[in-house]
């Protein structure tokens, strides 16, 4: 049986001497893996389809539960990502986050769209051509795009972060506060619970959630640290995010 799907390459692994196995995020079938035969040979036609972040229409042949890619038509390879290390790493984090949150056969069209849009933004951050938020340089622009994406992905996966007033006493939050890993909510210091969080972290999360306010570069960095811990608490570690933060 043959079928087609728009998909993003999340991960690739060598298979035998000339083949690769790709893990794909498809728009309408969730995550799936497929063999790409002969792509390690010189001049292989489908080499591009075995590259990370490749966004293409894939045509698969399915036989006894195994998928083989028989052709692919490139939508976007996000090639500018290769020109900026921070943007490239941010894209690696994005793919790892999708890989961790998705399960085979469970579709997630909103997350798929968010991932493609974030890769487009990261690509334009890398080009320095007016990225989505703070395109002064690759790192601060890519950090903000990544923060927005991770918050959206967590929400899609059922782990939303909320940054409103204190959920216990209703106080407006500012200055030092707390973040509760169980509920994903910021709260005031007096009500306690959770881990310490700074006002700049809270403001960056609010900005990234589209609730207004300004995010500082320091706030975005702190917010990514918090999201990294929260992601690990709810789903799994994101080793590439730790590396990204060390860049
Ligand atoms: Zn409170």
Count up the helices: 6
Q: Please give the alpha-carbon distance between the first and last residues.
A: 45 Å
Structural class: alpha+beta
SSE order, one letter for each helix or strand: EEEEEHHHEEEHHH
The unique ligands bound to this protein are: zinc ion
- The parts where pLDDT drops under 50 for at least 5 residues are 129-136
Q: Please tell me the total number of domains.
A: 2
CATH homologous superfamily name of the largest domain? Answer: Recombination protein O, C-terminal domain
- Per the CATH scheme, the topology name of the largest domain is de novo design (two linked rop proteins)
Which shape, going by the Cα principal axes?
elongated
Percentage beta strand:
15-25%
Text of the CATH class of the largest domain: Mainly Alpha
- Which second-level CATH architecture of the largest domain applies? Up-down Bundle
Q: Evaluate the radius of gyration.
A: 19 Å
* Helix coverage percent: 25-40%
Strands in their spatial order, largest beta sheet: 3-2-1-4-5
- Give the overall pLDDT as a whole number: 92
Largest sheet: 5 strands, antiparallel
How many strands in all? 8
Question: Any overview of this molecule?
Answer:
This protein has 247 residues and is α+β, with helices and mostly antiparallel strands. It folds into two domains: 2-76, OB fold (Dihydrolipoamide Acetyltransferase, E2P) (Beta Barrel); 79-246, de novo design (two linked rop proteins) (Up-down Bundle), CATH 1.20.1440.120. It has six helices and eight strands; from the N terminus they run E-E-E-E-E-H-H-H-E-E-E-H-H-H. The strands form two sheets. Strands 3-2-1-4-5 form a five-stranded antiparallel sheet. It has a three-stranded antiparallel sheet with strand order 7-6-8. A hairpin with a 3-residue loop joins strand 2 (19-26) and strand 3. Helix 2 runs antiparallel to helix 3. Bound molecules: zinc ion. Zinc ion (ZN) binds next to strand 7. Residues 166, 168-169, 171, 187-188, 190-191 line the site of zinc ion.
């Amino acid at each position: 049986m043959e079928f087609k799907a728009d998909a993003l390459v999340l991960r690739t692994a060598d298979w035998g001497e000339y083949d690769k196995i790709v893990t794909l995020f498809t728009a309408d079938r969730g995550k799936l893996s497929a063999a790409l035969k002969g792509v390690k040979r010189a001049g292989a036609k489908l080499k591009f389809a075995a590259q990370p972040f490749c966004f293409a229409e894939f045509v698969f042949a399915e036989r006894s539960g195994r998928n083989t890619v028989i052709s692919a038509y490139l939508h976007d390879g996000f090639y500018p990502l290769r020109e900026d290390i921070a943007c490239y790493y941010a894209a690696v984090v994005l793919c790892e986050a999708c890989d961790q949150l998705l399960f085979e056969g469970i579709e997630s069209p909103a997350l798929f769209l968010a991932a493609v849009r974030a890769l487009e933004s990261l690509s334009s951050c890398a080009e320095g051509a007016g990225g989505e938020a703070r395109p002064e340089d690759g790192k601060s622009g890519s950090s903000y795009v990544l923060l927005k994406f991770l918050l959206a992905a967590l929400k899609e996966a059922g782990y939303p972060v909320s940054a409103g007033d204190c959920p216990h006493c209703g106080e407006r939050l500012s200055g030092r506060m707390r973040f509760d890993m169980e509920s994903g909510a910021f709260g005031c210091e007096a009500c306690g619970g959770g881990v310490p969080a700074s006002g700049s972290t809270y403001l960056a999360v609010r900005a990234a959630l589209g609730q207004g306010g300004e995010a500082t570069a320091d706030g975005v960095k702190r917010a990514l640290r918090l999201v990294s811990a929260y992601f690990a608490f709810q789903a799994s570690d994101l080793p590439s995010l730790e590396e990204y933060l060390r860049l």
